[in-house]
Amino acid sequence: VLSSCFIFISATLILSWVHSSKSPLLSIEFIDNLTYTFTPLWHNRIGWLLIIIWSLTLILMIGLTRLRNIFWYSGAFFCTAYIFTLLVLLSTVSGNAHSWNQARLFETLSTLFLILILLGDVFILYRESNERYVRSYQNSIRDPLTRLYNRSYFYDTLTQRLSKASASQPLSVIVCDLDRFKRINDTYGHVQGDKVIQFAASVLQNNVRQDDAAARIGGEEFALLLVNIGANEALAIAERIRLSVSEKQEGLPERMTISMG
């Protein structure tokens, strides 16, 4: 289908160039300048032949693609527009009639509409591709259970931040571990154990800024990367998180605590 469209468009461009040439040897006259009627080159047989070609192209496009997306819908519209244009041209024998101008106007508007559709389709494809890329990238750097950053991303970020750390731009790391998690996991099962991990992860995430990084670096081990935070401030943050974990516990099998350093 695409090959047929390409061949037809190429032929149309060649004919357009030949028709616009100033050389009499290369020019093709569709309308007699004296009688304002179409020349034998443009008569019913050629017109109906072109209509048949466009109709077959339309049928093949619908049959092979099922118009699965807006791109193929625009292709079908393109074929339909040219079929209609040819029918308008065949309805008159005079090149001076309004039908010729109407056909040209319809062809121009159809082409403009087709271009807008294709541009919209390109924009949609780009947006969908970008969304898939963002999801794929986030999945590659996030822990699937907690949606915190994973171990690999945390250590890569830590390496980058350490090279920029200084006395004026301190960097603090807090390592966290859930107390007696193995006993909770063995006693109540992995489902309850996952709830405990998710609860701790939510508390950690709620206590860091956008520039910081909260990550799950092991089974029940977490780490926080705090940018422009000194030791005393990091200690205060760790204490605030410890109190939040011990106070806000709902739906957990038993009370839990967290160790941080």
From TrEMBL:
How would you classify this enzyme at the top EC level?
A: transferase
Question: Which positions make up the signal peptide?
Answer: none
State which pathway it belongs to.
Answer: Purine metabolism; 3',5'-cyclic di-GMP biosynthesis
* EC number(s) from the headed UniProt entry: 2.7.7.65
Q: Name one Pfam family in it.
A: MASE4
Task: Write out the transmembrane intervals.
Answer: 46-64, 71-93, 105-126
Which molecular function GO terms apply here?
diguanylate cyclase activity; GTP binding
Q: Where is the GGDEF domain?
A: 169-261
Which reaction equation describes what this protein catalyses? 2 GTP = 3',3'-c-di-GMP + 2 diphosphate
Gene Ontology biological process terms from the UniProt entry:
cell adhesion involved in single-species biofilm formation; negative regulation of bacterial-type flagellum-dependent cell motility
* Keyword terms of this UniProt record: GTP-binding, Membrane, Nucleotide-binding, Transmembrane, Transmembrane helix
Q: Which cofactor does it need?
A: Mg(2+)
Any one cellular component term from GO for this entry?
Answer: plasma membrane
PANTHER family, alphabetically? Answer: DIGUANYLATE CYCLASE DGCM-RELATED, REGULATORY COMPONENTS OF SENSORY TRANSDUCTION SYSTEM
List, alphabetically, the NCBIfam families matched.
GGDEF
Q: What is this protein called?
A: diguanylate cyclase
Q: Which organism is it from?
A: Klebsiella michiganensis
